[in-house]
């Protein structure tokens, strides 16, 4: 009876350890899924807004006043886009926390976060380029009207 109780106790302990390991894995799966969903939303946002931006923001103005109006509209769009950057930074910090915590999918998490960072930098570069073009257009029209 004592031997059976010892065996039962060790089996119970082993079962508890296995449950704990599986629960940790399930928690990591849940964290990964949330991370992937957040990243996917940001990929979609960047893709949609970059396409919209590249298609609809091509004009540089027909005169100084028009160029200034376009510049104001662009600055408003750029500021709204920076709100998305806050979300991207949050996702990137979650990715680094998961990777540092020895997540089982840390390689996949790093790949997703790297791609998200590259996509954002590409979008931000397009915004900066547009800002520069509009500033030059504004100066050109101002000088030409003078």
TrEMBL record:
One of its GO terms (cellular component) is extrinsic component of membrane. Keywords: Guanine-nucleotide releasing factor. Transmembrane segments: none annotated. One of its GO terms (molecular function) is guanyl-nucleotide exchange factor activity. InterPro entries: RhoGEF_Guanine_NuclExch_SF (IPR051336), Spectrin/alpha-actinin (IPR018159), Spectrin_repeat (IPR002017). GO terms for biological process: axon guidance. This is Kalirin-like.
